[in-house]
Write a structure and sequence with these properties.
Layout: E1 2-4, E2 14-15, E3 18-19, E4 22-28, H1 41-55, E5 60-66, H2 75-78, E6 86-89, E7 92-94, H3 97-107, H4 111-114, H5 119-125, H6 128-138, H7 141-161, H8 173-193, H9 202-212, H10 215-218, H11 224-232
Parallel strand pairs: 4-5
Antiparallel strand pairs: 1-5, 2-3, 4-6, 6-7
Protein backbone atom coordinates (compact mmCIF):
# COMPACT_ATOMS: atom_id res chain seq x y z
CA UNK A 1 0.00 0.00 0.00
CA UNK A 2 1.14 3.53 -0.69
CA UNK A 3 0.22 6.78 1.01
CA UNK A 4 -0.97 9.47 -1.37
CA UNK A 5 0.23 13.00 -0.80
CA UNK A 6 -2.64 15.30 0.00
CA UNK A 7 -1.22 18.79 0.51
CA UNK A 8 -3.36 21.08 2.65
CA UNK A 9 -5.47 18.09 3.71
CA UNK A 10 -3.11 16.47 6.17
CA UNK A 11 -2.93 18.57 9.29
CA UNK A 12 -1.29 17.85 12.61
CA UNK A 13 -4.50 16.29 13.87
CA UNK A 14 -5.16 18.95 16.51
CA UNK A 15 -6.70 22.36 16.78
CA UNK A 16 -6.77 24.83 19.59
CA UNK A 17 -10.18 23.64 20.70
CA UNK A 18 -9.23 19.98 20.87
CA UNK A 19 -8.49 16.83 18.96
CA UNK A 20 -9.33 16.50 15.28
CA UNK A 21 -10.07 12.91 14.28
CA UNK A 22 -7.94 11.25 11.62
CA UNK A 23 -9.85 9.58 8.83
CA UNK A 24 -8.11 7.16 6.50
CA UNK A 25 -9.51 6.50 3.04
CA UNK A 26 -8.20 3.46 1.19
CA UNK A 27 -8.60 3.84 -2.57
CA UNK A 28 -7.76 1.71 -5.60
CA UNK A 29 -4.32 2.32 -7.00
CA UNK A 30 -3.45 2.86 -10.62
CA UNK A 31 -3.64 -0.28 -12.73
CA UNK A 32 -0.54 1.02 -14.52
CA UNK A 33 1.98 1.52 -11.74
CA UNK A 34 0.13 0.17 -8.69
CA UNK A 35 0.90 3.23 -6.59
CA UNK A 36 -0.67 6.46 -7.77
CA UNK A 37 -4.41 7.15 -7.72
CA UNK A 38 -6.54 4.84 -9.82
CA UNK A 39 -9.59 5.74 -11.90
CA UNK A 40 -12.29 4.48 -9.52
CA UNK A 41 -15.14 7.01 -9.56
CA UNK A 42 -16.34 6.23 -6.05
CA UNK A 43 -12.81 6.49 -4.66
CA UNK A 44 -12.43 9.97 -6.11
CA UNK A 45 -15.89 11.01 -4.97
CA UNK A 46 -15.21 10.18 -1.31
CA UNK A 47 -11.67 11.54 -1.57
CA UNK A 48 -13.19 14.88 -2.59
CA UNK A 49 -15.81 14.77 0.18
CA UNK A 50 -13.18 14.16 2.84
CA UNK A 51 -10.66 16.58 1.35
CA UNK A 52 -13.19 19.39 1.68
CA UNK A 53 -13.66 18.52 5.35
CA UNK A 54 -9.90 18.38 5.86
CA UNK A 55 -9.59 21.85 4.35
CA UNK A 56 -12.11 23.03 6.94
CA UNK A 57 -9.92 21.34 9.59
CA UNK A 58 -12.77 19.25 10.99
CA UNK A 59 -10.70 16.13 10.24
CA UNK A 60 -7.16 15.11 9.34
CA UNK A 61 -7.14 13.02 6.17
CA UNK A 62 -4.84 10.17 5.19
CA UNK A 63 -5.29 8.57 1.77
CA UNK A 64 -3.78 5.16 1.04
CA UNK A 65 -3.67 3.46 -2.35
CA UNK A 66 -3.91 -0.32 -2.71
CA UNK A 67 -2.86 -2.25 -5.79
CA UNK A 68 -5.80 -4.62 -6.24
CA UNK A 69 -3.81 -6.71 -8.71
CA UNK A 70 -1.29 -7.44 -5.95
CA UNK A 71 -2.98 -6.59 -2.63
CA UNK A 72 -1.04 -6.92 0.63
CA UNK A 73 -1.31 -10.42 2.19
CA UNK A 74 -3.56 -9.27 5.02
CA UNK A 75 -5.75 -6.93 2.98
CA UNK A 76 -8.47 -9.40 1.99
CA UNK A 77 -8.68 -10.96 5.42
CA UNK A 78 -8.85 -7.59 7.15
CA UNK A 79 -11.59 -6.21 4.92
CA UNK A 80 -13.66 -9.29 4.10
CA UNK A 81 -12.43 -9.21 0.48
CA UNK A 82 -14.24 -5.90 -0.11
CA UNK A 83 -12.54 -3.69 -2.69
CA UNK A 84 -11.86 0.00 -2.03
CA UNK A 85 -13.05 2.56 -1.30
CA UNK A 86 -12.77 1.74 2.39
CA UNK A 87 -13.05 4.33 5.14
CA UNK A 88 -11.31 3.81 8.47
CA UNK A 89 -12.48 5.94 11.38
CA UNK A 90 -10.96 5.41 14.82
CA UNK A 91 -9.93 1.87 13.91
CA UNK A 92 -13.34 0.94 12.49
CA UNK A 93 -13.51 -0.01 8.82
CA UNK A 94 -16.55 1.14 6.89
CA UNK A 95 -17.17 -0.94 3.78
CA UNK A 96 -19.56 -0.52 0.82
CA UNK A 97 -20.37 2.77 -0.86
CA UNK A 98 -23.76 3.49 0.71
CA UNK A 99 -22.40 2.83 4.20
CA UNK A 100 -19.42 5.12 3.56
CA UNK A 101 -21.75 7.93 2.47
CA UNK A 102 -23.92 7.42 5.53
CA UNK A 103 -20.90 7.37 7.82
CA UNK A 104 -19.48 10.60 6.40
CA UNK A 105 -22.88 12.27 6.72
CA UNK A 106 -23.66 11.11 10.26
CA UNK A 107 -20.33 10.45 11.96
CA UNK A 108 -17.58 12.52 10.38
CA UNK A 109 -17.35 16.08 11.78
CA UNK A 110 -18.75 18.54 9.24
CA UNK A 111 -19.98 15.78 6.96
CA UNK A 112 -23.64 16.56 7.50
CA UNK A 113 -23.24 19.92 5.72
CA UNK A 114 -21.91 18.23 2.58
CA UNK A 115 -24.92 16.00 2.09
CA UNK A 116 -27.62 18.45 1.12
CA UNK A 117 -31.07 17.30 0.09
CA UNK A 118 -31.99 18.22 -3.46
CA UNK A 119 -34.14 15.76 -5.40
CA UNK A 120 -33.94 17.81 -8.59
CA UNK A 121 -30.13 17.68 -8.66
CA UNK A 122 -30.06 14.04 -7.61
CA UNK A 123 -32.31 13.17 -10.53
CA UNK A 124 -30.37 15.45 -12.87
CA UNK A 125 -27.03 13.66 -12.47
CA UNK A 126 -28.47 10.17 -12.16
CA UNK A 127 -27.62 7.77 -15.00
CA UNK A 128 -25.03 10.10 -16.54
CA UNK A 129 -22.27 7.53 -16.14
CA UNK A 130 -24.36 4.72 -17.59
CA UNK A 131 -24.87 6.85 -20.70
CA UNK A 132 -21.11 7.26 -21.05
CA UNK A 133 -20.60 3.51 -20.84
CA UNK A 134 -23.37 2.91 -23.36
CA UNK A 135 -21.82 5.38 -25.78
CA UNK A 136 -18.40 3.73 -25.50
CA UNK A 137 -19.98 0.36 -26.12
CA UNK A 138 -22.44 1.20 -28.91
CA UNK A 139 -20.56 4.03 -30.62
CA UNK A 140 -23.71 5.09 -32.48
CA UNK A 141 -25.60 8.34 -32.93
CA UNK A 142 -28.39 7.30 -30.59
CA UNK A 143 -26.07 6.79 -27.62
CA UNK A 144 -24.05 9.90 -28.43
CA UNK A 145 -27.17 12.06 -28.62
CA UNK A 146 -28.48 10.56 -25.40
CA UNK A 147 -25.32 11.62 -23.56
CA UNK A 148 -25.35 15.05 -25.19
CA UNK A 149 -28.99 15.55 -24.20
CA UNK A 150 -28.12 14.73 -20.59
CA UNK A 151 -25.20 17.16 -20.59
CA UNK A 152 -27.47 19.89 -22.00
CA UNK A 153 -29.90 19.37 -19.12
CA UNK A 154 -27.08 19.86 -16.64
CA UNK A 155 -25.96 22.95 -18.54
CA UNK A 156 -29.50 24.36 -18.44
CA UNK A 157 -29.73 23.75 -14.69
CA UNK A 158 -26.45 25.58 -14.12
CA UNK A 159 -27.64 28.46 -16.30
CA UNK A 160 -30.89 28.83 -14.36
CA UNK A 161 -29.16 28.43 -11.01
CA UNK A 162 -26.33 30.81 -11.95
CA UNK A 163 -24.15 29.63 -9.07
CA UNK A 164 -20.63 28.22 -8.97
CA UNK A 165 -21.81 24.73 -8.12
CA UNK A 166 -24.87 22.52 -8.51
CA UNK A 167 -26.83 23.66 -5.47
CA UNK A 168 -25.21 26.98 -4.63
CA UNK A 169 -21.88 28.77 -4.27
CA UNK A 170 -20.38 26.11 -2.01
CA UNK A 171 -19.60 22.54 -2.98
CA UNK A 172 -21.69 19.62 -1.82
CA UNK A 173 -21.82 15.86 -2.26
CA UNK A 174 -23.46 16.19 -5.69
CA UNK A 175 -20.45 18.10 -7.04
CA UNK A 176 -18.11 15.42 -5.71
CA UNK A 177 -20.23 12.89 -7.57
CA UNK A 178 -20.68 14.75 -10.84
CA UNK A 179 -17.22 16.15 -11.56
CA UNK A 180 -15.31 12.83 -11.63
CA UNK A 181 -17.90 11.55 -14.12
CA UNK A 182 -17.50 14.62 -16.30
CA UNK A 183 -13.75 14.02 -16.28
CA UNK A 184 -14.23 10.44 -17.46
CA UNK A 185 -16.53 11.68 -20.21
CA UNK A 186 -13.88 14.16 -21.36
CA UNK A 187 -10.91 11.81 -21.26
CA UNK A 188 -12.40 8.47 -22.26
CA UNK A 189 -14.83 10.01 -24.74
CA UNK A 190 -12.01 11.87 -26.47
CA UNK A 191 -9.66 8.87 -26.56
CA UNK A 192 -12.02 6.16 -27.75
CA UNK A 193 -14.42 8.16 -29.92
CA UNK A 194 -12.99 11.65 -30.39
CA UNK A 195 -16.06 12.84 -28.47
CA UNK A 196 -15.88 16.36 -27.11
CA UNK A 197 -18.33 18.36 -25.08
CA UNK A 198 -19.73 21.14 -27.27
CA UNK A 199 -18.44 24.61 -26.48
CA UNK A 200 -22.00 25.94 -26.52
CA UNK A 201 -22.48 24.22 -23.15
CA UNK A 202 -21.12 27.41 -21.67
CA UNK A 203 -22.38 26.99 -18.13
CA UNK A 204 -21.15 23.43 -17.91
CA UNK A 205 -17.68 24.54 -19.01
CA UNK A 206 -17.75 27.37 -16.48
CA UNK A 207 -18.67 24.83 -13.82
CA UNK A 208 -15.76 22.62 -14.84
CA UNK A 209 -13.40 25.60 -14.83
CA UNK A 210 -14.33 26.30 -11.22
CA UNK A 211 -13.74 22.66 -10.31
CA UNK A 212 -10.35 22.54 -12.05
CA UNK A 213 -9.23 25.39 -9.82
CA UNK A 214 -9.97 23.48 -6.60
CA UNK A 215 -7.46 21.33 -4.74
CA UNK A 216 -10.25 18.94 -3.77
CA UNK A 217 -10.52 17.95 -7.43
CA UNK A 218 -6.93 18.22 -8.64
CA UNK A 219 -5.51 16.30 -5.68
CA UNK A 220 -8.00 13.46 -6.13
CA UNK A 221 -8.03 13.31 -9.93
CA UNK A 222 -6.45 10.28 -11.65
CA UNK A 223 -4.13 10.72 -14.61
CA UNK A 224 -5.61 10.60 -18.10
CA UNK A 225 -3.69 7.40 -18.74
CA UNK A 226 -5.35 5.70 -15.78
CA UNK A 227 -8.81 6.70 -16.97
CA UNK A 228 -8.06 5.32 -20.45
CA UNK A 229 -6.58 2.12 -19.03
CA UNK A 230 -9.62 1.69 -16.80
CA UNK A 231 -11.87 1.37 -19.84
CA UNK A 232 -9.45 -0.71 -21.84
CA UNK A 233 -9.62 -3.29 -19.08
CA UNK A 234 -13.38 -3.54 -19.28
CA UNK A 235 -14.20 -6.52 -21.43
CA UNK A 236 -16.95 -4.88 -23.46
CA UNK A 237 -14.57 -2.19 -24.64
CA UNK A 238 -11.89 -4.62 -25.77
CA UNK A 239 -13.76 -5.01 -29.04
CA UNK A 240 -13.12 -3.66 -32.48
CA UNK A 241 -12.03 -0.11 -33.16
CA UNK A 242 -10.46 0.37 -29.72
CA UNK A 243 -7.08 2.00 -30.15
CA UNK A 244 -4.51 -0.23 -28.50
CA UNK A 245 -1.38 1.16 -30.14
CA UNK A 246 -0.64 3.58 -27.32
CA UNK A 247 0.99 2.18 -24.21
CA UNK A 248 -0.21 4.17 -21.22
CA UNK A 249 2.27 2.45 -18.92
CA UNK A 250 5.14 4.05 -20.87
CA UNK A 251 3.74 7.57 -20.81
CA UNK A 252 4.37 10.37 -18.36
CA UNK A 253 1.08 10.95 -16.52
CA UNK A 254 -0.95 13.84 -17.90
CA UNK A 255 -4.05 15.55 -16.56
CA UNK A 256 -6.69 17.17 -18.75
CA UNK A 257 -7.73 20.29 -16.87
CA UNK A 258 -7.86 22.79 -19.71
CA UNK A 259 -10.77 24.71 -21.14
CA UNK A 260 -11.21 25.05 -24.93
CA UNK A 261 -9.15 28.00 -26.13
CA UNK A 262 -12.04 29.44 -28.11
CA UNK A 263 -14.24 29.59 -25.03
CA UNK A 264 -13.76 32.86 -23.17
CA UNK A 265 -15.36 32.51 -19.76
CA UNK A 266 -13.71 35.50 -18.13
CA UNK A 267 -16.79 37.67 -18.64
CA UNK A 268 -18.82 35.12 -16.70
CA UNK A 269 -16.63 35.32 -13.60
Amino acid sequence: MADEDAPHANGNGHEENGHVPEIELIIKASTIDGRRKGACLFCQEYFMDLYLLAELKTISLKVTTVDMQKPPPDFRSNFDANPPPILIDNGMAVLENEKIERHIMKNVPGGYNLFVQDKEVATLIENLYSKLKLMLLKKDDVSINSLLSHLRKINLHLEKKNTRFLTGDTMCCFDCELMPRLQHIRVAGKYFMDFQMPTDLRYLWRYMLHMYQLDAFTQSCPADQDIVNHYKQQQNLMLQNVKMKKHEELETPTFTTSIPVDLDLQQDE
